[in-house]
Design a protein that fits this description.
The chain is an alpha/beta fold. The protein folds into 3 domains: 205 residues, Isopropylmalate Dehydrogenase (3-Layer(aba) Sandwich); 127 residues, Isopropylmalate Dehydrogenase; 34 residues, no CATH class. 40% of the residues lie in helices and 18% in strands. The chain contains 15 helices and 14 strands. The strands form 3 sheets. A 10-stranded mixed sheet has the order 2-1-3-14-13-4-7-12-10-11, with helices on both faces. It has a two-stranded antiparallel sheet with strand order 5-6. The chain has a two-stranded antiparallel ribbon with strand order 8-9. Strand 1, helix 1 and strand 2 form a beta-alpha-beta unit. 41% of the residues are buried. The structure holds 1,4-dihydronicotinamide adenine dinucleotide and magnesium ion.
Length: 398
């Protein structure tokens, strides 16, 4: 079989180092692939006026699978000031290349696993009935609709007349907002389509079935947001009844879910939500398992098979220029494992996850975040593992 080609998009800041270390882990685990690097991020915004050059899109179109580190985004003024002088006249507007990738390739399924590793000092703990300390095992996977809803970008301030007039036909708009001058109104829409709602629900149920989770929880707010959340929950009920009678369907409201996640996180399995609530729920659960150093994600389009696998953290510019990188590579390594699952290399993924679990359980090699240190250049002298030492520890277990 021909070797597969993976597009690597290191991006900015710590994205580069976590990706580089992860590739070493993949190789050590026996994963064979050719890698081609895709340009993405701030550097290309400054030099070319485009943080997501067409050649990178072409690479992903061709090879379908990408590992992505992280990018830096900066506010409007900085974006303009840092542009190459010859580009300043061109009226260019910075747009996030990740959102760009998502939209261009319709990466509508976002999957974020939050599983606690035994021995991780950052694991969530609570008091039990007799006041004893409990450390519940968290094993949750969040499926977030990635392209629609409140992040769909359909919004206006001082909306055009047709939009305003159409809104005025809604009795509640007229009653509650009709008093307000049009110029003083901002509207962000929350659009759900049946096609993509069905797809995220299907992905969630299929995952629960494949990996033996007992429940799928729709985490929305159908009692208040009746049309969109309501549609998602109703479709989930129909789908469960028709195809997944062995899996329980639960329904939580996002606000209550945020409260319950520290009370009984071990009760949840697969969680599925629209774009914004999925974003919130996944950060909430990630906090229980160690935070940004451990939070991995996959984004893919089930029709085209195009997938981008990335840690949820950003480029952490304040650590980007350390001589010895101190950040935790586990989120990136986990993201690579999700890629391996996606391309049917589950055995290699399993091997890597086992090695990571062993390193964490042993507790000898820990990055600064696991040691609860403030991220400074001297943490390595003080006993924290560097990014590379953590990757090497995983490789040693392989
Ligand atoms: P960030 O995730 O880059 O960093 C926040 C803090 O989390 C860091 O200062 C550090 O203390 C900690 N942290 C992050 N990754 C870590 C790791 N692997 N190990 C240990 N600690 C880690 O978020 P921030 O500071 O809000 O944004 C920095 C830049 O990254 C911005 O330009 C932002 O736009 C961008 N960003 C990019 C994302 C992406 O590429 N997907 C996601 C989030 C932010
Ligand atoms: Mg986020």
């Amino acid at each position: 079989m021909a070797k597969r080609t993976i597009v690597t998009m290191p991006g900015d800041g710590i994205g580069r180092v976590v990706l580089e270390e992860t590739l070493k882990v993949l190789t050590a685990a026996g994963f064979e692939a050719d890698y081609v690097e895709g340009d993405i991020g701030w550097e290309f915004w400054c030099k070319e006026g485009n943080p997501l050059p067409q050649r990178t899109i072409d690479l992903l179109e061709k090879h379908k699978i990408a590992l992505f580190g992280a990018i830096t985004s900066k506010p409007k003024d900085d974006a303009f000031n840092e542009l190459a002088p010859e580009l300043k006249e061109k009226n260019l507007v910075y747009a996030s290349p990740i959102v760009g990738l998502r939209q261009h390739f319709g990466l509508d399924i976002c999957m974020r696993p939050c599983c606690s590793y035994t021995g991780n000092p950052l694991n969530f703990i609570r008091r039990g009935k007799g006041n004893e300390i409990e450390e519940p095992k968290v094993d949750v996977v969040i499926f977030r609709q990635n392209t629609e809803g409140l992040y769909g970008g359909v919004e206006w301030s001082n909306p055009p007349a047709q939009v305003y007039d159409a809104m005025m036909t809604h009795p509640k708009f007229k009653k509650n907002f009709g008093w307000c001058p049009k110029e003083d109104i901002s509207i962000s829409t929350r659009i759900f389509t049946k096609k993509y709602t069905e797809r995220i629900l299907r992905a969630a149920f299929e995952h629960a079935k494949k990996y033996g989770y007992k429940s799928v929880t729709v985490c929305e707010k159908p009692n208040v947001i009746r049309e969109t959340s309501g549609m998602m929950y109703k479709m989930a009920q129909q789908m469960q009844k028709a195809d997944y009678s062995n899996i329980q369907l639960w329904n939580t409201n996002i606000d209550a879910q945020m409260m319950w996640l520290t009370k009984n996180p071990e009760d949840y399995g697969v969680i599925v939500a629209g774009n914004m609530f999925g974003d919130i729920a996944s950060d909430g659960f990630a906090g229980l398992i160690g935070g940004l150093g451990f939070a991995a994600s996959a984004q893919f389009n089930p029709e085209t098979g195009i997938g981008v696998f990335e840690p949820t953290h950003g480029s952490a510019p304040k650590y980007a220029d350390f001589k010895v990188s101190i950040v935790n590579p586990i989120a990136m390594i986990e993201s690579a494992c999700m890629m391996l699952d996606f391309i049917n290399e589950q055995e290699i993924a399993k091997k890597i996850r086992k090695a990571v679990a062993e390193v964490i359980a042993e507790g000898k090699v820990r990055t600064y975040d696991m040691m609860k240190m403030t991220g400074k250049a001297d943490v390595v002298e003080k006993g924290a593992a560097s990014t590379s030492q953590m990757a090497q520890a995983v490789i040693a277990k392989l």
